[in-house]
Write a structure and sequence with these properties.
By secondary structure, the chain is an alpha+beta fold. About 30% of the residues lie in helices and about 10% in strands.
Amino acid sequence: LFSCTSLLSAIIPLKLKIAAMRVFIFAAALSSSALGFSSGNSGSSAHSTSQSIEVRQPSKLRMGLLDMLGLGEKKFDAPCVIGDESIMSPKSHGTSATPVQQNLRWKSDGKVADNVCNFNRHYAESRGYWTSTDFVKESKEEYEKNGEIKFYDSNTGKLLFNAPKGRSYDDFIKESVSHGWPSFRDEEVVWDDVRCLANGESVSLAGTHLGHNLPDSTGNRYCINLVSIAGRPTDE
């Protein structure tokens, strides 16, 4: 009896210590700024829209930090479509059958794109990276011409997102600036080729890592790497 009691008293504090350590690591990550995938081209230039856009230094916060800490699966409200882990099984080029396209839109970095899309499950492009590309300028022109911006899988060229929907272009840009990555809402996702895994990872059916679903008070929010959705449609 004494040995069992001693064993239990040793195990319980250990579990508490592990839980406390996880909380500490998560808090430290949230409060620091650091490194995702970077081409070494994280300058401070910015394009202008109706308001100035701050290009921030790369962020250490990993989009998949919660699942890395083993804090369990998440539940997402409809219409978020949950996919099976087998979507991201190893293929001939990482998690995909093909590397990224050679001529990505908005002068997105191909090397960063291939790493993020095909050889990665948790890391992200640098926070604010998308504002250092031609995206803001060219997307504004596309929106003014067509009333929407289309985003294609950087590997396959399949349509993954249409934005903005149910909000203005400026609101879409403002939210993306606030969070550090292009941020989409449910109605802007093309669910024919996009899935969320149980841990929140957002992927294409071809095995392209896109980002993560990080819901806020207004609902699902898909925080997506620009380099993952900078493809050109396959008919181009």
